Amino acid sequence: MELHELKASLASQITQGTLIHATISNPRQKSNDLRRIKVKPILLRDTVMMQVEFQFERVMKHENILIDDFVGRLDDWFTEFRQFLFRFEEEEWQFQLSKKMKVALKTSKKEPMKALLSHDRKKTYLLEDGVPVPFLIRLGVMTEAGQVKKQKYDKFKQINRFLEFVEDSIAALPKEKKLRILDFGCGKSYLTFALYHYLKVVKGFDLEVTGLDLKKEVIEECTQIARDLDYTDLTFRVGDVHDYTGETEVDLMVTLHACDVATDVALARAVDWNASVILSVPCCQKELNRQLDCSPLDVMLQHGLIKEKFASLATDSIRAELLTLVGYEAQLLEFIDLEHTPKNILIRAYKQNKRPTEEKIDRYIAFRDLLHARPFLETELSGRLGQISPKLVQ
């Protein structure tokens, strides 16, 4: 089949409304920051549109596109990517495009299904409302019958959102070994219990989970709850992220709402322990706010509120970039809606052991120096950064 024939066939299927979902991947250029495109049809104000998720190296963006415009953009994506999967109502098309744009197409019949178009349809959660979950009952989120309490529904949604990130990270965790998981600043440990329940009880992983917090009374309460639930591989300890030395290797490190540079300390410890996956939701980024000195940005920075928001975004961008420089694939993702908490950025990092290019190194240095910043995390990682490039520790 020629490419123009393939596009015409795709356009016909899509305009007839038979598309269920699509994935476009394998960029032709390694320098292309856009890694993958995912597509599904949705219904917005009585109009069927294509919801397109652009997965960049460190962020994701969404765009809703009219069907005709979506078909028109296929030409661009054909030149940018090699691999395509389109799932229609009754069949699946997988095809690759060679350098000379030759088509290698494979089609297969599938069990018939219909697209779920409603943008406002009920959310499907990994932990379901109405299905009893022991730790959620014990923590007061659910009733004994499994109904989520109205006043706890925001917490229920936060827990499920967190578990979605955990689910997406499973492929990056090591196989054929007992997983070591550490949660810094676990607090009341809703998410620590969720992590244990999902990976141990639901997924069947062999693991050990430790929650660490400064408050002795909170740790005692969480320890008792773990005993009541018979969570034998979940322990809690009183400890400070700044001087905790109880680990030599960690597979998954979680840190949620550790204040200011405590997040940086936790990230540096995770790197030292060669964590395969890092999930971090920072809190109250004050360090860079005190350092900012960039006259071209004074139009923004003269306003305290804007300066605080800018400093917060710049701090998390620097954290993600530093993790990239020391061999991780780092992304900044939305953790939970702004209406539920202002602390809504999650740093997700997967260990890749990729050495950064000189371009990436220079880009980071230029941004840091523009702001006259000396990030705490950079100091914490100075040993590794110095081995990568002397320029990073000057």
Provide structural commentary:
The protein is an alpha/beta fold. The protein is 36% helix and 27% strand. It is built from 13 helices and 14 strands. The strands form two sheets. Strands 4-3-2-1-5-6-7 form a seven-stranded antiparallel beta sheet, with helices on one face. α1 runs antiparallel to α2 and α10 packs antiparallel against α11. The longest helix has 22 residues. The chain is globular and about 65 Å long. About 2% of the residues have low confidence.
Q: How are the SSEs ordered, and which strands pair?
A:
Layout: H1 3-15, E1 19-27, E2 34-44, E3 47-56, E4 60-66, H2 67-80, E5 81-88, E6 91-97, E7 103-109, H3 134-138, H4 153-169, E8 179-184, H5 190-202, E9 207-213, H6 216-228, E10 234-238, E11 252-259, H7 261-272, E12 277-283, H8 287-291, H9 298-301, H10 304-325, E13 328-334, E14 345-351, H11 358-370, H12 376-380, H13 382-388
Parallel strand pairs: 8-9, 8-11, 9-10, 11-12
Antiparallel strand pairs: 1-2, 1-5, 2-3, 3-4, 5-6, 6-7, 12-14, 13-14
Helix pairs in contact: 1-2, 4-5, 10-11
Main pleated sheet: 7 strands, antiparallel
Topology pattern, helix = H, strand = E: HEEEEHEEEHHEHEHEEHEHHHEEHHH
Radius of gyration: 23 Å
Tell me the strand percentage band: 25-35%
The general outline is globular
Number of strands: 14
List unreliable stretches of 5+ residues. 337-342
Query: Percent of residues in helical segments?
Result: 25-40%
Mean pLDDT: 88
How is this structure best summarized?
The chain has helices at residues 3-15, 67-80, 134-138, 153-169, 190-202, 216-228, 261-272, 287-291, 298-301, 304-325, 358-370, 376-380, 382-388, and strands spanning 19-27, 34-44, 47-56, 60-66, 81-88, 91-97, 103-109, 179-184, 207-213, 234-238, 252-259, 277-283, 328-334, 345-351. With 394 residues, it is an alpha/beta fold.
